[in-house]
Hints:
Structural class: mainly alpha
Transmembrane segments: 12-29
Helix content: over 70%
Keywords: Membrane, Transmembrane, Transmembrane helix
Amino acid sequence: MESADCLWSHYVQYFYLFFHFTFYVKFFWFSKTYKQLIQVFAEVQHDLWLYSHVCMLSSVR
């Protein structure tokens, strides 16, 4: 059951991140600060990796 909850939370977080990412793309597209966009994307990707790693470890227990 934990794995199902984990998958659901992944789905919710991916949707949330996608929504925020599209917002960031629109915002930075107009401000033309691609360097900041790349930095934000790297931070989001890092957070997502940490979250999936923690989720995977918790499902092993």
